[in-house]
Amino acid sequence: MRGDGKHRIEHGPGLPGPTPLQNLARTHALMVGGEAVMAVSLADSMFLSVSPDAARGKVLAFLLVSMAPFLVVAPLIGPAIDRMKGGQRLVIALVAALRAVVMVAMVFYVDSLSLFPLAFAALVLSKTYAISKSALVPSTVESEDKLVDANSKLGQVGGLTGFVAAVPAAVLQILSTQVALIGAAAVFAFACASALQLPRDVVTAAEQATPLEVRELRSPRVVRAATMMRILRGAVGFMFFHLAFWLRHETAGTAWFGFALALAGLCTLLANTVAPAIRRRLNVDTMLIVTIAVVAAAGLIAGWVGSITAGLVLTALVNAAAAIGRLAFEAIVQQDAPDANRGRAFAKFETQNQLAWVAAGVIPVLLSMAGPVGFYVVGIVGLAGCALFVRQSPGGRRRVTESRGARARGRGLQAR
């Protein structure tokens, strides 16, 4: 593990430059900014400017296409990148450059079916970046104990950037979709330049997961926490598309949807900001069950109220709960899987979480439902998550203790 304080880049005699974590945060902000501009651009051509039935077909095709990167990137590209010395740094720079190229290509195919292969390429590149970033984070902190805090800071940066980038993205979109795509290409080009400043001496995971690592990551406590995270991320994806299609039929629905996204981004930022303080005061298991309970209660109350405002509040709370739950989950992995390669583990879990987002998002695209009905669905799923959390055995910590004892006894025998 490389300390960020030991690897500052000097920018002149006696002047310390940014730390590796600061370089990664800057690159991450640019990647998120480019992603936000692209999302606004595609939302108009694939969703807002077409009829509801046509929009459902396009969004469904987009979601189905977007599931492929999870199946391609994680098992194939991820391990190959992980074994390359400095691979994550080079891949992030290459991904940013290719994303700029894809944005420029989209300019010529906005109203064509060729947009879908380009969207697929953009999604593959996006997931490749997510995996590379997750594997790179451990190289930017002094010790693995600070890994969760580093991920929290990156979450804050991403949330703030997504919130702020919505305004210029909307302005560019007013001019034209093509102008917005060119703007996204420019942002990704800057991200490529920033990525070249990332650490070269990356912590790699050349070896396959050991039996001990596999056993720790499959402990009941870790499995339970991972299940809760998939529920939370699924709720985020469900609410995004449910609110989008429901608000299309309401007065000023597009404006309401834009406000919902901005509010969700702001609440995610606030959640990432306060989550470390909450973690210092609450047990991480308590944090996790509280987030699920909040989603359940908010969903049922929003369904009972049934108003647009209730839907906006529910969306904000679901996004905030997912952000806080992620920090609790990462802390549980740290506690119960001390022998695991956390860069590899977090990349694997993040892939599963994003797949849950896509899978849950398909439901409101396929099934047209009234706003309150969708809110009740979120509440019921939250209740099911609470019941599952209570039913599952929290014996993961005991298993880790036993494995540590066995390892210690093994070392004692070797010493003899």
Task: Give a brief description.
The protein is an all-alpha fold and 416 residues long.
CATH architecture tag of the largest domain: Up-down Bundle
Hey, roughly how much beta strand do the residues contain? under 5%
Provide the gyration radius in Å. 22 Å
Sum up the overall morphology in one term. Answer: globular
Classified in CATH, the superfamily of the largest domain is MFS general substrate transporter like domains
Listing every helix as H and every strand as E from the N terminus to the C terminus, the arrangement reads: HHHHHHHHHHHHHH
Helix proportion of residues, in percent?
over 70%
Mean pLDDT: 77
Q: How does the SSE layout of this entry go?
A:
Blueprint (H helix, E strand, L loop, with lengths): L19 H29 L3 H32 L3 H21 L7 H22 L10 H29 L1 H19 L15 H7 L2 H28 L5 H29 L2 H22 L2 H29 L5 H25 L4 H21 L4 H20 L1
Descriptive notes:
The chain is an all-alpha fold. The protein folds into 2 domains: 16-206, Up-down Bundle (Growth Hormone, Chain: A), CATH 1.20.1250; 211-406, Up-down Bundle (Growth Hormone, Chain: A), CATH 1.20.1250.20. The chain has helices at residues 20-48, 52-83, 87-107, 115-136, 147-175, 177-195, 211-217, 220-247, 253-281, 284-305, 308-336, 342-366, 371-391, 396-415. Helix 8 packs antiparallel against helix 9, helix 8 (220-247) runs parallel beside helix 10 and helix 8 runs antiparallel to helix 11 (308-336). The longest helix has 32 residues, at 52-83. It is globular and about 50 Å long. The two termini are 31 Å apart.
